[in-house]
Specification:
The chain is α/β, with parallel strands linked by helices. The protein is built from ten helices and eleven strands. The longest helix is centred in the N-terminal third of the chain and has 21 residues. Bound molecules: guanine (GUN). The site of guanine has 8 residues, from β4 and α6.
Length: 294
């Protein structure tokens, strides 16, 4: 059984990005800049945004975070977005989700300049993805496709089952895997809460992508012998033995499933670091589109 090492693969990608950024700076250009808008004090969101900032700096990019209290109005948030849309020094930005309940997320996403939408959540970018056009692919599915490619996992003609139909992960993942592209061309089934006899469907998968948001949901009986398992979940579960009082686990019951599959992504150290690497890839792409060379 192979452990798909997202940490090492993401480090390789970051080295490649850092070399490209250093080249731009050597040629007298400014560094690419990523901004993040963070509303409220959700613990997981704070961690993600801090990690994005740290990783930007590690590849020679610059970053900024716009922090607001939970009670910021939607109108004020839209004004911040409008400011970042026009700021010449910002190449791409994200609005960290989830947003407070009084916000209309679709309206907020639609306000982002699609050319700076490095999360790929703007409807025109999601539309371009459906059309198979060049776009910003949402970071988690983009990172997973890169992980599959760089781990040498064969996808052509394979049965892929994606568990979860979110706009952020499941839906773009299913689109990407089914495309007529090298590194895709799979037969894809997208499962959700109304799927009948879920285990019978997931057992067909040569490649199973679990993005259901429930800790340990995928058990060994749901997995075919020799399948490749990609675990998108990341949850804190109470653990008396851990000094922090919790441990991280994914959507997959790792102990049971790893004994049966041919390859699996660990949590942490699988999909998580690839998501950050993909966001850096998208930031570099936004920068290069804004300032094409020669
Ligand atoms: N919250 C959880 N995942 C994501 C993501 O990929 N982008 C943003 N903006 N927020 C998130």
């Amino acid at each position: 059984m192979k452990i798909i090492d997202g940490k090492t693969i993401s480090a390789d990608i970051k080295k490649e990005i850092a070399a490209e950024v250093a080249g731009f700076i050597d040629r007298g250009r400014r560094a690419p800049h990523m901004a993040a808008i963070l509303v409220g004090h959700d613990g997981a969101s704070e961690t993600y945004v801090a990690s994005k900032e740290k990783n930007c700096v590690s590849v020679g990019m610059t970053s900024s975070v716009y922090r607001y209290e939970e009670n910021i109005s939607e109108k004020e948030l839209l004004e911040v977005i409008s400011f970042l849309n026009q700021d010449e020094d910002v190449d791409g930005f994200i609005v960290q989700l989830p947003l407070p309940k009084h916000m209309d997320v679709d309206k907020v996403m639609a306000a982002i300049n699609p050319e700076k939408d490095i999360d790929g959540f703007h409807p025109s970018n999601l539309g371009r993805l459906v059309m198979g056009e060049d776009t910003f692919v949402p970071a988690t599915p983009c990172g997973i496709m890169e992980l599959i490619k760089r781990s040498g996992i064969e996808t052509v003609g394979k049965e892929c089952v994606v568990l979860g139909r979110s706009n952020i992960v499941g839906t773009p993942m299913a689109l990407l895997l089914s495309r007529n592209n090298p590194g895709a061309n799979a037969t894809v089934t997208l499962c959700h809460s109304k799927t009948r006899d879920l285990a019978a469907v997931t057992r067909r998968a040569d490649i199973l992508v679990a993005a259901i948001g429930k800790p340990g949901f995928v058990t060994a009986d749901m997995v075919k012998e020799g399948a490749v398992v990609i675990d998108v979940g990341i949850h804190r579960v109470a653990d008396e033995k851990a000094s922090s009082g919790y441990r991280l686990c994914g959507d997959v019951d790792y102990a049971g499933v790893s004994a049966k599959c041919s390859a699996i992504t660990p949590v942490p150290g699988g999909v998580g670091p690839m998501t950050i690497a993909a966001l850096l890839m998208n930031t570099l792409k936004a920068y290069k589109k804004r300032f094409p060379e020669g």
